[in-house]
């Protein structure tokens, strides 16, 4: 039997872990992007995500009340304690796949943060107000890049279509709702992800059409979700070995 | 014991350069939200520019160091997220100094109004991101120089 934890703590972990794992993934491009401008853009996007991570996880630690800092939560948990969706832990693939994943997540993130600006929890509302500005800027860029690649050369079109085919089913997990989401929505703390789905679909499908891409007919195929930790891909463990090794090998080290 | 006035503390803060863009000060940037006294503790409220800005902890350290040099002993730094920082809070002096430094100041239109080097309005965007989280890269099509643009948020 697992102990049932505070739904607000769980919900904050979901917000923090999505930003943390995606931020770490995107940071893997540092020094490897196709051109310097993209390298800098990806690194800055990752930086914003890691900043948002620390705000979410810091609050998660306070809500939990066991004295854990954002660093403790990020670096000293194992894979089954992570609450991120599978979309963000998938390997980067090629540049197109990285940008497509970013776009599908960015739109969700912006809609979610915009809605949280009126959260009944003032701390969550404050973090959302700050992060929403950054997310809006991320969408501007990832959307433009998806359209540029889709409506670009034969090769860029083929590659970004392949990326969409791989990622579209994973993006559907963002809208899976469970009892944590229901409780948070009922209390007016965080919106029900399902309530964002129509707006997400309208915006994303519009941009994909402009990018001359075809949306595949596909559903989220996994039996469990990363949101409650019952399901993660093999890739998460590999991320953690890289991300956590320093704190694991030298506990308590600081810069 | 009498402590320095808040105006005096503001004046001191106004001399601390931003660690990433030393041409402007922390007050030019508009990130100092409040200065006050809680008993004999000087409380400075700071808002971050970007949530992941690596300069945030350095900025706090610089504030503390500067105030200590002016003889303050008890200093508390508070973080305030809301209202979220906007480039509207940048001072006129700060905008002018940015331009002299070669960085186009933020504009409500979302892009620089002119090249900070030659003044030409014939400019184009290279990338939405630049050398720090707060800047984007642009280029002048007349003098052909690339330049930083301070993003408007
Ligand atoms: Zn010029």
UniProtKB/TrEMBL annotation, chain A:
One of its GO terms (biological process) is phenylacetate catabolic process. It holds the Pfam family PaaA_PaaC. InterPro entries: Aromatic_CoA_ox/epox, Ferritin-like, Ferritin-like_SF, PaaA_PaaC, PaaC. One of its GO terms (cellular component) is cytosol. SUPFAM superfamilies: Ferritin-like. This is Phenylacetate-CoA oxygenase subunit PaaC. The gene is paaC.
TrEMBL record, chain B:
Residues 7-69 form the MIP18 family-like domain. Residues 114-151 form the PaaD zinc beta ribbon domain. It comes from the Bacteria. InterPro entries: Fe-S_Maturation_MIP18 (IPR052339), FSCA_dom_sf (IPR034904), MIP18-like (IPR002744), PaaD-like (IPR011883), Zn_ribbon_PaaD (IPR056572). Gene3D superfamilies: Fe-S cluster assembly (FSCA). Pfam families: FeS_assembly_P, Zn_ribbon_PaaD. NCBIfam families: PA_CoA_Oxy4. This is Phenylacetate-CoA oxygenase subunit PaaJ. It comes from Maritimibacter harenae. The gene is paaJ.
